[in-house]
Amino acid sequence: MTQKQRLVVIGNGMAGARLIEEVLARQGADLYDIVVFGAEPYGNYNRILLSSVLAGTHDPKDIFINPLNWYKEHGVTLHAGCPVTGIDPVEKMVYAANGISERYDKLVLATGSHALVPPIKNLYTENGKFKPGVFVFRTLDDCDEMINYSTNASKAAVIGGGLLGLEAARGMLNRGLEAHVIHLSSHIMNVQLDASSSKMLRNKIEAMGMHIHPDKHTVAVLGEDRVTGLLFADGSTMDCDVCIISAGIRPNVSLAKEAGLAVERGILVNDELACSAPDIYALGECIQHRRRLYGLVAPIWDQARHLAEKFTNESYNALYEGSLLSTKLKVMGVELAVMGEKEQGSEEDEVVVYSEPSRGVYKKLIVRGNQLAGAILLGDAPTAPRLVQLFDRRQALPENRAELLFPIREDAETINIADLPDTTQICNCNGVSKGQLVAAVKAGKRSLKMLCDATRAGTGCGSCKPQVQAILEMATDGQVVDDPSIHYYVPGVPMTKPQLIRAIKELNLRSVSSVFKALAGGKEDPGSKVGLASLLKTIWGKDYEDERDARFINDRVHANIQHDGTFSVIPRIYGGVTSADELRRIADVAKKYNVPMVKLTGGQRIDLLGIPKDKLPDVWRDLGMPSGHAYTKAFRTCKTCVGTEFCRYGVGDSTTLGIQIEKRFQGIESPHKMKLATTGCPRNCAEATTKDLGAVAIEGGRWEVYIGGAAGSHVRKGDLLCVVDTHEEVLLYMGRFMQYYRENAKYLERTYGFVERIGIEELRRILVEDAEGICARLDAEIQAAVDAYVDPWEEAITPATPTQFASVLDTAEKVTAQ
Amino acid sequence: MQLVKDSSSSAEITRYNLGPVYNIPQGEGRTYRVENTAIAVFRTRDGNLFATQAACPHKGGPLSDGIVGGCQVICPLHSYKFDLATGTSVGNTCDSLKTYPVTLSEAGDILLSLDQ
Questions:
Q1: What is the ipTM of this complex?
Q2: What is the pTM of this model?
Q3: Which B residues 39-58 touch A at CB under 8 Å?
């Protein structure tokens, strides 16, 4: 391995620490020795929650994202309480207080911002410090001092009626002080709100006991030894014993400036977030990118992801093109979401407004070119997520704008997560409660994958994952870490499915072990083996080099493992149609082997349960029937109804079709299992419309072919792919879809998810209209897979390895001494 | 018959020959009965041998039927993951596995030590 580079980060605030987390999440620790300088003597905390600490609703220890030992655990060197004093871009050195210096290969400036202090007279004491009682609101220490001082105070004035100013005032109010907000312009939060919503917010917070003083310009602080009041430009005064200055922020640029980097209002960065000197980058509130400054967290997260990707992936060459601004806030408990522009830009803009003053609800949309150019949502949380999504993705809006303003039911459900008691069971497979999930998040499991791995929530049927995600977002206050491995085909090889397929083909990798060697630095990940095997088999077909250890136990012994380590045996009964002789043979086997349970399955099969592993070959031999594949990710069954053969309503021969389908596609492997059905009339007794693939006979001798149905943990009616005239055509289109699904679905993606992801229109275009000209190839590939079919139960006669079916090896012998 | 004793330890250690290593295909595990103890022995693709208790502490799943990678095994029943060298669970809070010293003899046989 080549020597690690040194990645030095100046600033341990939200931007700097987030960058480190993103780099670590991408295995950056293998590439870099990471060093971070923090001016404050702590780990990294959530600055957004400082207002909650001030308000007394959060304990300071609850707002830490990464405490000091987190850095140690992850091998990150943290110089806490150690302000950087200089950068030498030529020697590539960083110098800090206490004589500490660090050499860098890559340097990141995440120096943040400081409070803007307007020119106000009498603000400082003789030694240049703020007069007692005067504060800015930026750090945990500021917060601490304010809390201490306020215990002996009774009236607080906050200069600045922006978001932070209002939060500071709320904090003072909560601590029993009279709270006054002094605002320079006519309406509060004028950066985010238009006049109407601002007025509504003002009414709401005044009703809570806050005093708002608009159009007031503070010119001086009154008081000699400590603050006793304020003097305004109009000559009026106000008594107060606490004065909090919250008039905005300014980027911290002095370090960059002294190092000779290009600086305007912020540190200048290009679309790679690179500064004007080589190997120096910057992100967060300190930067100026395309003439813009950023003060919200979401853009900073974008920037951190961008830089982390760039640092850890050589082929990454995307540019940071700026972030759209949208934010969800709580102002004194009032929900507020704002995005984009707040006022009409031109006559062409469409403005949609809903106002309900008695409840304090205000919603405004600015629509331009049928896209959302901006929105304000006050006092209304449920509609916000959808609007933010439409805004971020620049999606086309529905014609009926009212649909945007009022919550659709599903959105309302996800929001309710916050109100559930901690004891509520979220994962019904593994019995994981909301409280357990929240505790795990607080313990640092801040990506969906880490949270699921740690609690096992979502690892059963997976249907609770959206709720787990919602809890994650709630418990982290939106600070979810993006786990890049969710984009990988398997977690142990850092590549998306298309990248991986390309590499496998280019390097001619035909076995799972060769993939680990070539593409994962030789590191074998057990959780990735089965997925890789599935992919390699689809890519190489009969030329796949089958390593048995990459198979799940079910596929090693061709039976389904049960909770006691025994197996279930389901012989193939084509179309669910059997005979007296076959039934007698199955009964004889059940008797001979004392099978503990004989069960009819939902797929119209007979299941022999409780067979020990070493009896499997004998059972198969005695059955004399092929494998039913009820244990693997493959074509499983085709359920049928009796159709025209006996049913008086039947309009199509569904049993014959079902048997044909099953004989053709038995054992075809796929990203997940495929359960099929054919049914002889639209009464749909075989439930073909909720199968992965289904055929429904309709009058006139025709068949409807459905794909993407489901009736398990997820219930979905399949989409109609096409209507055809013959059994042969049903087989043709089903095979074509199967092959497309085999090639394009993610591993373990059922057809319902796949069809929904690609879209039925697109699938019809590709598979029926042949718009991409690939149908002939798909048909040939599935034919090759059909031709390659071998009944795996033949291994009863020729085992793959000598101990393939051994339950327990009894070969131990005590060793004698020499 | 005389037993090989490990003089450095106060507990009595008995060694067993479990037979040829080729009984375990590369990258897989097998369960052995040793006296009255069921023990899972794993043979990794990079040539290492590991031995642990046979049943998963979670719900008794047969660990030797699990998927092995690097020096980890994933239980086939509920996907709990364990480090084969130390026995500790990986990424979850399941109890640890008991591990046993195991080596390969020059003749290619698996030699296991068991606490008596």
A1: 0.90
A2: 0.66
A3: 44-46
